[in-house]
Every structure is written in structure tokens, then in C-alpha cells.
Amino acid sequence: MSRDEVSGNRLRERRIEAGLSADQAASIYGQALKGVAITRKAYLKMEEGYLPKSLKRRAILAGMLGIAPALLLPEIVNEVSTQRVPTEKGKALNIKEYRAKLLTVEKQGYRSADEALREATRRIHTLHSRIFYVSSQEQEEMKLLLCGYQTLYADIARERGDYKLALAHYNMAITLAYQEGFTDFEAAAICQRGNLFLDQHDLNSALRDFQRAASFKTPDQLRGYILSLQAVTQMRLAHTEQEKTAALRLIDETENLASPTIDDALYQHIDTCSFPPDRYLRFWANTLMLAPIKKLRSPGLATEILNELEIRNHGSNAEEKRHNAYHQMECNLAYARIYKDQEYFPVVSTLLQEALTLAQQINSRVHLRSISNLHNDLKMSSYGKNEEVAMLGVEIMKVQHPHLFN
Asked: CA-CA distances (angstroms) from residue 108 to 98, 262, 282, 325?
């Protein structure tokens, strides 16, 4: 086995910074790997520079000690398969089925991101190949479907953490919607691109997109969704009472835009931007806890809203697995921020672990940056040297690089 003294020294330095003994590190590593602690001697051998070749084992080390993955995992590859995807041949295109498929994926999710991307690509190619050989009415419907599938493709790429690919397809959806005069779709796609920037905490780019999307005249639910995201972003940037008030004023404006029914033409093609009352309440609770300065946050009111949400969401629709998972993740994040401010750190750790489990279930990395940031706050707290915090780092690594743990 070759020796890498630099990486070994890095392991030792990070373990000491994390406040872990060699015995604790050996236990965490072994439990994450096979459910059984390894010996102290075996662990210290790695700190001497004899690191395992297995990317999975290195990922566990990086996760538990908070080491940047690139420093221990130089061979990580995160690409979508470039396998050629054929179009459908020899049968008429079923527009009703294409529309239904969009809604099904939006509500229930998918088993594999790569398979979902290939399926979306096949449908996009098929729509392109058929669009000039149908009636004008069918052409209009197929163009709407193209916008929907381009946005869906971008959403899936965003969920799997491929931001460059997602950005390219959001831009394609925006261009197509603009060329065809589909105002609602253009606003929705711009909004989703803003969400992509928000995932990466590029707050200024996100705010520009949300403000641009809000400038369109759109159905009430879509407008409510856009303004809520604008409020979330403005609150993340707020440093004064005036800036906090401006963000909450936007949230207040969205209350009357929420509706449990979906009847606008946009949502027959894609359901991403629906805005039921539960979603309004979830945005409100999170917005109250997102200011970067503690004195601008409102944990008491946020807790009241989340408690109401728990009562309202008691009988959630089992057919909307993906929506339900995002709902619970976002509630968990709001609760985690509340309990972090109140210094109930073990509860924060449990809430983040639950959010990670939900993220794995729906193959999504959308909230991973927020979870990781809260985990970093935990590491800096009085609870930071607890083994549970180190194990949470390993779980975050599993969501960031799932292919290493298969």
C-alpha cells in the first residue's frame, strides 16, 4: 500500500480540530462503513498516510472529519450518461399521456435520476421530431409540452446537483417560452432558474430572476410562488428592520394568492409552481427564520405556524410522495433553525438527519447546501464534538456522492 503522508497529516489535523479521540474516530468510521468499530491501531495507520484506495472509504473519512471531498477524492465523476436516446417510432404520439407523465413525475418523483433524464430526453426528441407533422392545434399543445419537459429535465438535473446542466435546460425552456409567447411558462422557468441560484446561495442572481418573473402578469398561484421565493431571498439578504419588513410584506401579499385547487392551463403541463395554503405557510415559517442576524429572526411565530402545519398536513396525499417529502424537509429545516437559535443542538442534529433521509428517498440534493450549512453551525457549537455530528457529516457525504456508497 502506497503512503500519502500529506493526506494522513490532514486526517490527524482535522480529527484533533473536531475534538475526537483516535478511538472515537475509529468507532465512527467503522460504524459508517460496516456497522462495527475498527481498532484504534487500524485507524491510526490511515493517519500515518496509508489511506484506503476505496472511494467509499475515503468519502466516509472526508464526511466525518469535514474535509473537502476534492482533497481525498480526486477521481469523483458526476456526469449524466451520454448514451444516445432514440425517439419513439411507428406510433402516434399520445399527448394526454405526455401531459399525465409530467404531473406524475412532479408529484411522485422517480427511482433513478439518470433514467428520468434519459426518459425526458427521449420525450423531448420525440416532440421535436413530430411537431411539424400535426395540426396547428396539436402543434400548440406539443410546444407547451416541450416547455414542460425542458423544465422537468432541468428540475431533475438540479435535484441531482448538476447545476451546469440544469442551467442550460432552464435557459432553453425560457427561450422557447419567450419565442412562442407562453408568458406563464417563461415566468415559471425564470423562477425555477432563480431556485437553482438559490440552491447555490447565489442570492443576488436568484433575486434578479425572482424579480423578473414577478414582473409578468401570471395566474395567482404562480405569482404567489414567485413572490414567496423573492421574500425568502430578500430575508436571507436582510440586515436591517426595514429590509426584514419588506420581505415580510411580500409574504403577506401571497396569503390571498394561495389556493387548494389547480385549474390554470399552466398546471396541466407542470405542477412545480402550484401554491396551496400549506405551501404559503411553509414559506412564511422559513422566511421568519432566514435572516442572517439573530435579532431579525422570529422563532416564536415560526413555531406557531409550523405547529398549525402539522395539524393541517396530518392526512397528506400518499400519491404525492415527492411533494410530501419536500414539505417535510422544509418544515424540518425551519424547526432546525429555531432549535439552533435556542441551542437545542441534539434536536437540530436529529431534524437534519431526517431531512437527509427524505432527500435520499426522492434523489434530491436541492436542500443539501442548507443542511450542510446547519451542520457546519453544529460543528462550531458546544455540541460540535459529539460523535453524532461527525456521523451526520458522513450522511451528508452519502447524499452528495451516492454512487460511492452503492
From this structure: 15, 17, 20, 10
Q: What is the mean pLDDT of residues 15-22?
A: 88
Helix (H, G, I), strand (E, B), or coil: what is residue 26?
A: helix
pLDDT beyond 70 at 3: yes
Whole-angstrom distance, CA of residue 26 vs CA of residue 398: 19
The label of the residue with cell 403541463 reads: 269
Q: Which three cell numbers stand for residue 13?
A: 489535523
Q: Name residues whose C-beta falls within 8 Å of residue 318's C-beta, 6 or more positions apart in sequence.
A: 324
Instruction: Summarize pLDDT for 308-325 with one digit per residue, the tens.
Output: 988 877 555 656 777 888
Report the alpha-carbon distance of residue 221 to residue 256 in Å, rounded.
9
Q: How far apart are CA 202 and CA 153, in angstroms?
A: 21
Distance of CA 133 to the CA centre of its chain: 39
Mean pLDDT of 336-347: 96
Distance between CA atoms of 132 and 108, rounded to whole angstroms?
Answer: 32
Per-residue confidence (pLDDT) for residue 355, from 0 to 100: 95
DSSP 3-state assignment of 15?
A: helix
Non-local (6+) Cβ contacts of 242 within 8 A are none
Distances, alpha carbon 354 to alpha carbons 62, 63, 98, 232, in Å: 21, 17, 34, 23
* Residue 97 CB partners (closer than 8 Å, separation 6+): none
Rounded Cα gap, residues 303 and 164, in angstroms: 36
Q: How many CA atoms lie within 13 A of 371 on its CB side?
A: 30
Signed CA dihedral, 243, 338, 254, 236: sign only:
positive
Residues 6+ apart with CB under 8 A from 156: 110, 113, 116, 117, 120
Q: Which of 69, 164, 61 is nearest to 390 (CA)?
A: 61
